[in-house]
Amino acid sequence: MRAGTGTNGAALPFAKATFALSVHDPRELPPPTGPEIAFVGRSNAGKSSAINALAGRRRLAFVSKTPGRTQLINFFALADAGFLVDLPGYGYAGVPGAVRAHWDHMVGTYVRDRPSLAGVVVVMDVRHPLTALDRRLLDWLRDAGRPVHILLTKSDKLSKQAAQRTLAQVARELAQVCPGGTVQLFSSLKREGIDDAASALARLAAGKNKAPAKGE
Ligand code: GDP
Predict the structure, then answer these.
(1) Is any atom of ligand 1 closer than 6 Å to the C-beta of 88?
(2) Are 111 and 117 in contact (CB under 8 A)?
(3) Is residue 46 lining ligand 1, measured as CB closer than 6 Å?
(4) Suppose 216 and one of 127, 138, 211, 212 were both cysteines; which one would form an S-S bond, judging by CB atoms 3.0 to 4.6 Å apart?
């Protein structure tokens, strides 16, 4: 495999991404330019590792892990146009109510109002998919009409059969919760699912994969 390419030689979607800015208040968001793809997930689900795998770099998304930045929205400029947007993780144990309220306000406002947001990648640990907080987020995304793609990460932690079973289950539930949403298995460790993710990201950025509007 060449550097900067996926397993079949396709370009890695975030190969040329560069850190642009961090925001801690929805009023500080940069002017909307090209399409934005946001990544979000429960803390420790494997979001940073997935972003790094899709960038072919080891430390890109670890910007978001530096102390003081875990509750920020981090923007990475993409090669062509637009941003990869790393939303703060949720579900940290023992987080004070004020931090949770800030997360709700910041992420809720961003996913509801951001005109340039093309789609949202929700990262879940394949061993613990669709937690109560994941479902709450999916409800928000559906209500905001945002196209959704789910990465079931750490697929290397399950047997192939068990991973396929979880994939089928999550796909069934997703069809109910977020019609039009898509889901795949992913392993940053084994670099599996990168090409599928690259196609899904291209679809989101192109504005396809849209959830049907209410009543459609
Ligand atoms: P984040 O908090 O969602 O950004 O999660 P991280 O990317 O920091 O990952 C959390 C933990 O899971 C770390 O210890 C990673 O090494 C591990 N991890 C992430 N992705 C994978 C994966 O695909 N396979 C395995 N086995 N471990 C992973």
Answers:
(1) no
(2) yes
(3) yes
(4) 212
Nearest-CA neighbor of 117 among 199, 213, 40, 212? 40
Q: What separation in Å is there between the alpha carbon of 14 and the centre of ligand 1? A: 18
Provide mean pLDDT across the span 157-170. Answer: 98
Name the more confident of 116 and 58: 116
CATH code of the region 18-205: 3.40.50.300
Q: H-type helices in 70-154, by residue range?
A: 97-113, 132-143
Interval between CA 151 and ligand 1 midpoint (Å): 12
The pTM of the full predicted model, rounded to 2 decimals, is 0.92
How do beta strands 73-77 and 148-153 pair? unpaired
Domain boundaries, the chain: 18-205
Whether pLDDT at 208 is above 60: no
> pLDDT-based confidence at 57, cuts 50/70/90?
confident
Q: Give how far the C-alpha of residue 143 lies from the chain's centroid of Cα atoms, to the nearest Å.
A: 17
CB–CB of 43/116 below 8 Å? no
Query: Rounded to an integer, what distance in angstroms lies between the CA atom of residue 206 and that of residue 215?
Result: 23
Nearest residue by C-alpha to atom 2 in ligand 1: 44
Mean per-residue pLDDT, 197-210: 84
Query: Does the CA dihedral 42-32-115-13 come out positive or negative?
Result: negative
- Is the CB of 193 inside a 6 Å radius of any atom of ligand 1? no
pLDDT band at 1 (very low <50, low <70, confident <90, very high): very low
Contact 86, 47 (CB under 8 A): yes
